[in-house]
Records
---
Amino acid sequence: MNGGAEYLQSLGLCGRTDPESFKACVPLATHSDLEPYIQRIADGEDSSILTGKPITTISLSSGTTRGMPKFVPFNDELVSSTMQIYRTSFAFRNREYPIKNGKALQFIYSGKQFKTRGGLTAATATTNVFRSEEFKKTMKDIQSQCCSPDEVIFGPDFSQTLYCHLLCGLIFSQEVQFVSSTFAHGIVHAFRTFEQVWEELCADIREGVLSSRVTVPSVRAAVSQLLRPDPDLADAIYEKCSRLSNWYGLIPELWPNAKYVYGIMTGSMEMYLKKLRHYAGDLPLVSSDYGSSEGWIGANVNPLLPPESVTFAVLPDIAYFEFIPLKEEVEEAKEEERIDSSLVYKESEPVGLTEVKVGEEYEIVFTSFAGLYRYRLGDVVKVKGFHNSTPELQFVCRRNLLLTINIDKNTEKDLQQAVDSATKLLSDSKLELVDFTSHADLSTDPGHYVIFWELSVDGDNDEVLLSECCDQLDRAFVDAGYVSSRRVGAIGALELRLVRRGTFHRILDHYLGLGAAVSQFKMPRCVGDSNAKVLQILCDNVVKNYFSNAF
């Protein structure tokens, strides 16, 4: 299909398709290696630079890692593989949690579209999928049709779209079979919003008139067609909300026929699981499939597993997969070896899909139908077993380091574990962690870790408790390089900075302003100096800070 691509021809592949020739001729690549070719296509050159089939659109990554989105080629093959993943995971999910032919309360959002210099439409990967005819057909086939009309999903204003999603979900409350969003934080954010607007939603349903907050004409017209005066439903919702204790079990209370809550819940989404379980009550949380802006990797074929233990079976026909074995970390690494703040491993030559070993860790390399060849995804996974002959993977972390100042090496997983350890101290207080991120501050001498927290209420009367949280954060980073550096003063005391309520929503608004879609947004867990605007938002909203006394 892609054998005649200019990129492959320039490497001397000459149309050969055997794995040995492919690996001998084509080097491992990162996005920066392929970016010039992708940019040429975006600027108007022919897709044959990278692919046989036309590149129909450009997908945008979330942009939360670098502060700006990457261009990723997108074609019909990626749409087909997305639908294959959806159908596969639904078959396994429906075997454990069978649903009737109802509706889904889906908090999904389309991002902005624009034209590249060469006239291609550019949008987030989720937007490209949601706008495809195949998506609508597949959602119907797997009994997952959204409560909200298309005008809501593709509405230009996030806040208005969210409000209408909630309203449509309540109108069809008896038909909702499950609640979902692309990422777990999308569900948590939706119900945090519900806590603020539920009485207004009840008034809309009681009177049959849509709130004046919805001003987009197409959205307003579409939702108004669904809305009829229903005082009985409004009273029932009001009564149920009034008797809930701190909103525990909100989802099954208002959507009694829902079987589960569904979304990506791994990696940076683990932060939101506690609050999601609070809203879900006894409903199971089911983690959705494993993919990225560049393409899909695997489906969740074990939906009974909790999100913290979920594995993904690689679908071998949606890409050509290789795996770089990652052995024990090198304890001491020269500065020049730390390229792009990447976690240092002893690497071996990539192995094939059936050559991986249970219990070992690997970095994923894949070759997609859309022109990414031997592409290093940057994800570290562990092989937990096999489903028939295909490996089942557990996501471990991103390969890139989040926090490093000296010889320390701390990943997203290490940061999450440190935050989990510290927030346990809040369990007996009224304080609840809303969101967090971090920053390696090199402006001080020595440099030090900064952790930003947004709390649900002001912590003015909890100075001692929050100081203890700061100490615990510092102690919880157990990487040998970090501990030794702290003890000898090569890394300064960890700093916990509390930010105003709503700060992380301002960060979301910033990314939406750059064209990101809520469906694809992931809060950056480390904000580097290059992400200056987000760092400024955080620093401008600090209300209190604490320094650790743990060392």
---
Amino acid sequence: MYGKRYSKLKLTLKLVGVVVLLLTLSYRPVTTMRLSPLDPSSYANAHELIIRHVDLDWTVNFDKSTISGTATLQFKLLKQDLTEIFLDVSDINVSSVEAKSSAGEVPLDWDIGGTIENIGSKLTIYLPTKTSGDLTVVISYETSPKASALQWLTPEQTFGKKHPYLFSQCQAIHARSILPCQDTPAVKFTYNATLRHPKEVTGLMSAIKVDSEPGVSTFRQKTPIPSYLLAIVVGALVSKPIGPISAVWAEQEQIEEAAEEFSQTADFIAKAEEICGPYVWERYDLLVMPPSFPFGGMENPCLTFVTPTLLAGDKSLATVVAHEIAHSWTGNLVTNRNFEHFWLNEGFTVFVEGKIVGRLSGNASRDFHALHGLSELSDCIKTQLADTPELTKLVVDLSECGPDDAFSTVPYIKGSTFLRYLEDLLGGPDKFEPFFRAYLNRFKFQSVMTDDFKQMLYEWFREDPKNEVLLERINWDRWLYGEGMPPVIPSYDRTMLEACLAHASLWAENDLDTIRASPLLNQTLVSVQQIEFLAQLLEKKTIVDLTAEKVALLGETYGFTTTKNAELRFRFVRLYIRARLMGKMDEILAFANSNFRMKFVRPVYKELAGWPQARPIAIDNYNRVKDQMMTVCAYTVAKDLGISDIA
């Protein structure tokens, strides 16, 4: 059934496979080509046809750890006389493919091939005649128990201990493991879904629930979304209202704590609308995830997923919710066309997040938020990306690298810093925010590239001839393709930061007696300043007398040994590693095993890998807990440890 073109691809991929076997331990993953004209990580021929709507009929099978059912894909053809459809799949068992017509459903020939590790495969659907216009295809299939987008938890892994739990994480390219699709953000579609699940649990999706009865829930998403925003969760969940259009969902044991922690949600939404324009998604609910959720948050429309590590008890980490709310415009409404331009999602979102913080807490807080981000960026470049400086570019090349391999703080912080630089250069918020809202309005419901943003920026600001000299100052090449830290750091208000730097210098440069006698210890740091203080301390090349006694005093002085704040605990256990305190290994691993948020576990494992005596212990621990991690987390941590087999 394979044509010549397909046979050549198969041969190429076989040759690639040989190279991969020889280079198993190298950084480069397994792609050595751009898989399609629009997206290097997608096989989809989205330049020839696009999915406009999807109808899902899914049954959740906890006994088999699979989802089975049908996906009905409604295509709009962009090319006349089409003979083949290319879709992305990953470990999906397809049983039939049919075209809908006025005469009924017509079986279609299909095959799956071109498998690339950590990318997926190509489902080729052969059309019986040259096709034009619109087309509807029904695919019956079942997911794999190892589908990379799905995490199946036993009752014992939940708070309630009574019912199993399922959740998804499709970003960046994992939607292809739960349905055959054009798994590229270049394509957006609406969807309806019927979800069948055990009667004892609740089903939710990234859509509005339109009906439910025990064991069956139906959903509608009327605003077009890219495939990575498809989301599902099934578990013993309850909800509590936290605003006019918002509720928080969690297991019963966490619901009150979560409702209190995220009580500012309505304020965040109001400020975001001031900055970005009307909110179009009807609902903004939050779901507190199990500890195995690999990210801080995921901006699934109508139902943001958030890590339980945000439950600090003092709302100090709730700005992550402001970030996810901002995604309702930057990312969800206006989307990067592929993940080489991920900064158009994340840099823009951090920029809006900072503005929300500034409107609620003042510009000093906004600037401190940005400065803390720069500390995290510096740490990321020196640790996670130390061996891959090409991934510190704002626009990366994914021809030989998957989006999961490229994921880092860079598009977030370097991207938002670029936008702040542009705002300051072009006249400040009064001048820049009207442009920003107009950009979001022009490109809403679309997918864009960096050149789209650049072109509109020039069109907008060139209306005033005085801006021409300012626009000429922008070194786009350095900002977009230069490696390392941002080429220009804006003039931020450093008031809140200076206290953090003073505390970091005190502990890095002095012995215990000097520290104990310092009046600086009488100065109170709020939670966000404590986080930055520890970040700055970790940045120091040398720390005088970094002993168990000094680390213990540090913990006692600031309460780091008893805090619930995961950001503080994360940095404090890294000091244990820096001090080579083997006696604290149980505490280090306890933190690493308490959650599988990649922001936390990757640096911990990477630094343990650089400690020869600790590396075998870290690998043993990883092998014990890796099945509790989502695939994206297990895969990247294995790389950080320098091991290749995560099977």
---
Amino acid sequence: MKGGIGGALPAKRRWKGFVIAVLGLVLLSLLVPLVFLLGLHNGFHSSGLTTAQQSSTSNGVRVYSRHSTAKNGNQSEGDESRHMDDLMRRLEPTFSKDIRENFVGEAENKTAGSPLLDGLPKERSRANSTGVAAVHAATENIKGIDGSPMLDGLPKERSRANSTSVATTHAATENIKGIDEGEKLCELKFGSYCLWRHNHKEKVNDLTVRKMKDLLYVARAYYPSIAKLPALDKLSHEMKQNIQEFERVLSVTTIDKDLPPLIDQKLTKMEAVIAQAKACRVDCSNVDKKFRQLVDLTEDEATFHMRQSAFLYQLAVQTMPKSHHCLSMRLTVEYFRDPSPDIDQSLAERHLNPDLHHFVIFSNNVLASSAVINSTVMHAKESESQVFHVVTDRQNYFAMKLWFSRNKYMEATVEVLNIEDVKLDNNKASTPIHLSLPDEYRVSFHKVDRPSTTEYLSVFSHSHYLLPQIFHSLKKVVVLDDDVIVQRDLSDLWGIDMDGKVNGAVQSCSVRLAQLRKFFGNKRVDETSCAWMSGLNVVDLVRWREQDISGRYLKLVKEMNSEEAVTLRASLLTFQGEVYALDDKWVLSGLGHKYGVDIEAVKNARVLHFNGKMKPWLELGIHDYTVFWRKFVDPENQFLSDCNIN
């Protein structure tokens, strides 16, 4: 009997140990994901506004990718939100395959990071020794946010009205400068999200709720010090009750109309309690410490919500709308149900006829490319001389084939090409070719002694450098981005004498290559050259072949393989001395990021360029300008109706 009992005990102990081990593993499996989800493994630090990594910096110049955001601040600021940074980077769209194969960290739509480079040229560096400039591959603009004329930071009319009050005017001026600079620093970190936020800021009308939050904030700061004093037990108890009551109300109410009755009495009681607390002799250092803790918590919360909002904005502008995805899928399915007929031989001859006016559009967006073509032919004097070549990828090829076969554009001819089917002369290994769209960059100069300025560039992508091989028989083409709208006849472009230049483009001389000399490393830079814009480009393919522009570009890309923003660097250097400056009147740019553009200027522009993240086909598009795009989209089209595109 004893032996039997004694022999059973060890087995029972082993069974209990096994159960405890299993429970411990289950508990750990629940706690570990929670710790990482909340970011507790990074500790708690002060607030900091950091997002994605910068593409590259030089002493005065920083370069960022199209969909990245700048990263400023010291090490502690970077550590504070590392968890959120990692989350945002993981959820952002992945880089396109062709870009990843060519260089690290850059894409047509991307976030990237890079090492530090040297500064601006000496003469500019000395003038702005403490200044910062940033080049960010996105698309935004800022000129003072509110667009009002500024005189020493104040609107001119206000300055005149208060000219007799020097001290007051100076203080107000400094305040406005601080606000304006804060908006620009926000743009430096978060890009066009800050412009969108500024122009969609809702007016806060729930003043009672705000007042309750303010009183609760103050009461929480005083309560710990009051609670430590035995003589003030009654006040402490009353303050605790008021705090709990306010917390209960605010937990279920966010607007004034939902507040319970008699809320005014509760406000009066809280104000009286706070007044008594302020009249008491308490340790000011404790109150100060509590206030600082509350400020830190509030700043952390505001930072989190701003970063979260910026991320959701980035997600919204980078993701194809569901309705557009529906359109592409429906067109593709319909194509295989009823394949479009073979191209008429006469149309095929037009595609190769160098005497006609040829337009090239690189796009993966059916509706956008259709709007470009529709606006061009509607304003053409002779649409029968126009031939449009839409270069797309395999995913959208069949949808575009069906769309352009069923929709007519007056007398113009439309050809759809799959770039992945293009046979290149020098592609012996048959390396797959992938479509890349124009790259867009934001260039911000943040200076200490002068107001910050921001400029926006868009340049050719890798796909554009295949033009001579795709169109062997053509001599001259006009390249249009899929985010432009044409409002005048473009036939005059074929009569321009480009003086032997290769690329006719609108220049942005507010950004000169000399300013970015260190950005190009040891490459030779023409100090008189300006940056240029894609969107509307007249390309002389004969001169392109003679100058071997594609070879130059590929050589530069290979040399810069380990650097960031390769497309921008290589494109600006490749076309150095090969750009013919078109009149600025040809294109009005910035309609995808710039608020406050004069509507009359928009109406009178020859070509509208919606460069920026707020494209006209997105819900986040700037409504004042999207109307100029929407009128070239047929709302009665059955496919658009079925996919709820309106």
